[in-house]
Amino acid sequence: MRVKILMAGFGHVGQGFAELLLQKRTFLSSAFGLDVRVVGIVTGHRGAIVDPNGLRLDRVLKSVREGNGFEQSGYSVSQMSAPDLIKRLDFDVLTELTITDLKNPQPATEHIRSALQKGRSVITANKGPIALHLKELEALAKENDAVLKYEGTVLSGTPLINLIQMHLAGAEILEIQGIVNGSTNYILTRMEEGLEYDDAVAEAKELGYLEADPTADVEGWDAVAKAMILARAVFGTEVGLEQVERKGISTLRRADIQTAKEENKVWKLIARAQKDGEILHVSVRPEKLKDSHPLAAVKGAMNAVTVYTDCLGAVTITGPGAGGRETGFAVLNDLISIFR
Ligand code: HSE
Q1: Which residues are catalytic?
Q2: Other beta carbons within 10 Å of 290
């Protein structure tokens, strides 16, 4: 089966996905009978390239990675916009991987709406539109007989959302607790190892773990967006930004971390969604966990979520929570699950 993809956004995640499509071309065909072709890529800064027969991703990646944008890819670069291409191009799936904005997630939300209204499926790793508009977008997908997938928004390629929605479908989820932000967990881990807060932040920045605006991470906003997505995806409850209790890690000092250590405890930035009858309490705040807690052993930039169920007790999944290739893997898996 031929699957035609239009990509909006070609940053780290878009490139990670394209690289996986190249590497797994034969596997996708032999294991799932999928002949995946990227028929268009549209970006905010590099312009757009199109080939209805499928772009040569090796050439495109080489050109971009050598710093030439799409200019050396062998395709003519146009200034067509994403809305134009979504309207005019013949494609089956839109991947929405443009820059995320949690306050005003545009134009990403509009891209998703337009593709769904056209009856085309959408895969996104973009947190803003899903955190703020998931209910509306799901309804739109249903109305137009299309599919909306967003595994990469939380825990990157580590399959948390599909795990809960598919493989824990028969269980009642009572509570979820998670470390859903890698950079803050890295900072806290380095503080446990003796670094001062500012030095640990500087190190996380140098390693590229922090968002362009580090307050998104250290003040908990990124984790809040992920908690909102989980509230809707897991509990079916739409939670507004103002309903999430939020506290970041910026007030924690090395002395707090060391005191906890002496008590056999660790500080973690925990995102939590907990059912209390009909009410869902959602919070993001530093919590002091006992060493024996399943999330206490999660170190560095790793992410993990513990799901408390009625049938299995606690189920914990640990894995990478960021990275171009890791998030590109979520997009690839969502694609396979749509056409399987
Ligand atoms: N800044 C985020 C983190 C990236 O540290 O987890 C992944 O969403």
Answers
A1: 226
A2: 11
